[in-house]
Amino acid sequence: MNIFDRMMSLDRRWVFLFIALVCVITYVWPFSIPIRITEEVKAIYSFIEKLNEGDIIFLGIDYDPNALAELHPMSYAIAEQAFRKKLRVIFVTLSQNGPGMADQAIRDISDSVKLDKTYNGVFYPGREIKNGIDYVFLGYKPYPALVILGMGQNFRIPFPSDYYGTPLDSIPMMKGVMNYDQVKCVIDFAAGNVADMWISYGQGRYNFPLALGMTGVMGADYYPYLNSGQIFGIMGGLLGAAQYEKLADNPGPAIDGMRIQVYAHIVIILFIIIGNIGFLVSRRKQG
Amino acid sequence: MKRQLPLFLVLIFGLFGIVQYFIPHEKSEWMYEFLLDWIYIIGIFALALGIWSLMRVSWDKIKHKRQNWQYSIVTLTGLFAMIFFGFNYFRDFFNSAGLQNYMFRAFFDHIMIPIQATMFSLLAFFIASAAYRAFRARSLLATLLLISALIIMLRFNPYLGFIGDYMERTALWLLNVPNLAAKRAIIIGVGLGMVATSLKVILGIERAYLGKD
Amino acid sequence: MKRQFLLLLLLCFAVAAPLATAQTAEDSPLSGEAAVAVSPAPGPVSNIQLKDTDNDHGHSVTLSWEISPDDGAGLNNVIGYEIHRALSPEGPFVKRAGVPAGSHSHVDVGSKEESSPDYMKDYIDYYYKIRTITADSAVNAESTVAGPIQSYGQWFNTGRVPVLIFVACFLALTLYFINRAKGGADLYVRPLAGIGAVDEAIGRATEMGKPILYVLGLGTAADIATIASYTILGRVAKKVAEYQTGLIVPCYDPIVMTVAQETVKASYADAGRPDSYKEDMVYFVTQSQFAYVAAVNGTMLRDLPATNIYMGKFYAESLILAETGALAGSIQIAGTDEIAQIPFFVVACDYTLIGEELYAASAYLGREPLLLGSLKAQDYAKAGVILIALVGFILLNFGVDGFKEFFFVSN
Known about the structure:
The structure holds three protein chains of three kinds.
Chain A: H1 3-8, H2 12-28, H3 39-50, E1 56-62, H4 68-84, E2 88-93, H5 98-113, E3 117-119, E4 122-124, E5 135-140, H6 144-153, E6 185-190, H7 194-206, E7 210-214, H8 216-219, H9 223-227, E8 233-236, H10 237-247, H11 253-286
Parallel strand pairs in A: 1-2, 1-6, 2-5, 6-7, 7-8
Antiparallel strand pairs in A: 3-4
Helix pairs in contact in A: 2-11, 4-5, 4-10, 6-7, 10-11
Chain B: H1 4-22, H2 26-63, H3 69-85, H4 102-134, H5 140-154, H6 161-202
Helix pairs in contact in B: 2-3, 5-6
Chain C: H1 2-27, H2 32-36, E1 46-52, E2 60-66, E3 78-86, E4 94-100, E5 105-109, E6 126-134, E7 140-142, E8 146-149, H3 161-182, H4 193-208, E9 212-217, H5 224-243, E10 247-251, H6 254-270, E11 282-284, H7 289-303, E12 307-313, H8 318-327, E13 331-336, H9 342-348, E14 351-354, H10 357-366, H11 369-397, H12 402-405
Parallel strand pairs in C: 9-10, 9-12, 10-11, 12-13, 13-14
Antiparallel strand pairs in C: 1-2, 2-5, 3-4, 3-6, 6-7, 6-8
Helix pairs in contact in C: 3-11, 4-5, 5-6, 5-10, 7-8, 10-11
């Protein structure tokens, strides 16, 4: 077996090794890379930015810990932007391990909002965000399609009480908030087919502004919905999250992780080129 | 009779599903929602059956010391530990969420999250290996696929300067035109297949799910 | 003293006057000019038409009107319209919504929940009036009261007629081809490599003395892909029972598990080997996506099944499963209608059923006239869709929009 044959049929463990190496090296060696902003991410940022104090947004934390690396940065950046602008947030999760994700996100964002910060030149004094006043966490219910349909009638149908057991009717923030009519938009962070359900059973039936944040693998599939106007914005994978962090002037794990992703892509491209050189030369020799 | 009754039920509820789609009236909605509620009920009972099945299979392995029976101990320990710590014994026992229990949260934050994130990360390695093997210029079509893949991947690269902008535009065209056209073709086929399968199930033509050819 | 008092009074007035003016200017959103002269009121909207909203469950009224003569013309001072509703022509009227200038219509949707403050009862009289508003809240114009109108639900959604026609045509086509197939007509269906491989793979497993792993995916029992997968599982299980090969079916959804257990059990009975069926062949693992993947991967690497069959709904786990199966050296056959996952299966599996091929698999496996007939109907329906798309493409390019309207389906 000559070198070109070897290039063509490398053991997959070599690929694994190089990917691991580049991930570890770029992780421990911090340097920044430029990030280009795309319209579909900017649309979400601008939508939230234009809302007024006291407006309610609805965030669907529909992912399990496996998608945390890509989706947590999005939910953190958007929720923090909302709380800084004194918007009110309804959190819900339709993913089995989502309560842990939402709970962790709420805790971390509460801590962050307590600090004075300046974003895009605007100073925001730190403040305490309170459960039931600034946000409500409805919790988790199985069978997402049914829950989405149920919430269209009344949030109280699938969630008579919030995650912590408080009846929705005794939560100050939920006074007069019956269904999607009272929320300005729904942003769903999804790692599975819940996004489809939000489009068909939620937006399709109740016609609210919907934006999606999703894993990189899923991203490309949802562009048709953007073109058809069913969703007004989309954030795909770590890149989408990094763009949002940049727009919000709130650098976090997504911007930090972009250098790892970019260099891992370069390694994959190099392997593809190596494989093709091997393949083409071997074929020429044979032919 | 054992097979006639399920087929009859499928026919009745399947036809109701079709008819309900065309009736917007409140009474039809109420009936639809009433039937949907049954899915919750069936789901909860089925979950109990599922957990029972997992426990039985795991216990059987441990009892007969089948190959790799030790893993079953880990499974059962994990299952019972999370159920045990899912309650809040010191505050409101029946009306409290699992995450208010310190141990439950600790298990979730420090075991569940890292393990699941690790499993998902494996995808990066498998995608790299699959891309290496799949994208070969074997034929004209395969070469087109290879070039498209390179453009899509390179569009994320911030070092390409103005070439990156062209890549971005080309990538969006690839995604929105040829990719979408092919997807729509598959979607139309899938849609028709779904209608056909639904009709076959409702009319009792397709009954292999009942174990009968 | 009196003079001093007057001076003090004048001084106070001199200081307070500009402050008072500033205060007034701040309070009023109007410009200085407006404060001097009150702007004239705009003309009210006219010809208010009320009707019950079509094709809905009730609790809703649709309003349309002719806009104010000063909306975009005349005084050009209209900024929007407020919709007010009452239970009698005398009122009290309650504001229901605001719409921007230029709007000609509005759908007033109430809640169907009696407990809701927004509850809108059906079959009672409602009266509406529309207030034309300007930037000055004091300057507006009210329309005459329109009504009464009652809201009620419909028993047929006329907006969905195209779907009804399509379903009826497709049903007729299916029944026609089933009849033809029953009559002995030879219906050609193109061969599918993935289906042919199923029998071969079961044979290989028997020869190797290793089990077959069947994965139903992450779908629920209601997903068509899962229903199609049950069908294939039923036939695979029957063959497995005949050949006395092992079968492993780890499940993600408990309802799917229950149905799969019944399917496999019945297939073993059909094959005449009910005693060979064991309860632990089909078992529940977890409803956590990657915990499920870890469990299935573990089974692949420990039990080294000869064949892995993945049929149903798959998401991000597809490549992890298929690559692990390839590493374990198993023959792999996959089928899914999840478009994003098809490329992953194509790369890592030996055979892949793409989209609708998954649904067609049972017809191929059984080759029953009833099932083949429905497959043929699908092909003709597809040809019909292509024809309609072509006609629409040509007509739209020639500016004929009416054709497109026929296919519009309301929610």
